[in-house]
Amino acid sequence: MINEPTIILSGTDPDLPQNVPPGLARYSGLREMARGGSAVLRSGFDCVTGRTVAIKSLLPETRHDQREQRRLLREARVTAQLQHPNTVPVYDIGNDEEWGIYFVMKRISGENLFEILKRIAQGEQDTIDAYPLSRRLEILIGACQALAYAHARGVIHRDVKPENIWVGNFGEVILLDWGVAKVWGHADDNEPLNRSVLTTEETESQQLKTLTGGGQRPGTPLYMSPEQVNGNRGIDERSDIFSAGVTMYEALAIREPFRGANINETFDNIQNKEIPPPSERSPDRNIPKSADDVVMKAIQKRPGQRYQFMRDFIDAIRTIET
Question: What is the pTM of this model?
Fold first, then answer.
């Protein structure tokens, strides 16, 4: 869990610093927070605003990869334009001489939803008490609010999963990682989000770890919609509804609905397997029938049989009595 930074007195001085260097040299005390297959997230202190920020940039081995540069820049610009309480504010975007493309955003405290669900699965009582079903549904609604806002502006997230839902120490919910978002009107709108995009440099066993297996997992294949698995070029907001529905199933049952022994079996389950509702999958978790009805509609194989708009999905979640 990341702690909230304290206010630094020097950051409230009435005079601006002199000769502020350009690029990432403006930020001091850089410290790595997390890294993925292509990018690294660091915290740093902004001498101009006097606040601690988060800075995302590419790893040395991907820094000159034009596709990765383009993806990071897209993530930065999409995130910057989605100004909503459930998205993270972006403060700056740049191209540093040493570090390449980067963007600076609010540093948020807390942890992702997957870590919370993992501790619940492991029977950690403090987490179970802090995150009852009603709270887990509130978190999901927060993420879906960000998606509804994005959909209204022509953006499809395409990577909704518990790891990308950040739960803050003060109740805030932030939907992260818009790096593979589909934006209407862009030249590459029709690029399918397929296995090669989602599973680079990761083994199948790492991707399909269970909640109780420990460790961070990309997990994306577990949440893909059938149309994503098919490489469908007509993906719309109903694909995000499916992925949010899979996330909801996991939040209810504390088990992934479609996980197979490998990625191919997982994809086959997503496309063809009829799964039991959460209350049957996890009968010991007291899941109400109304929750079953909502989540099973969200994860219908055919987009036309799901909720057609994220607002409808949100409204349905709110009707659940816990």
Answer: 0.85
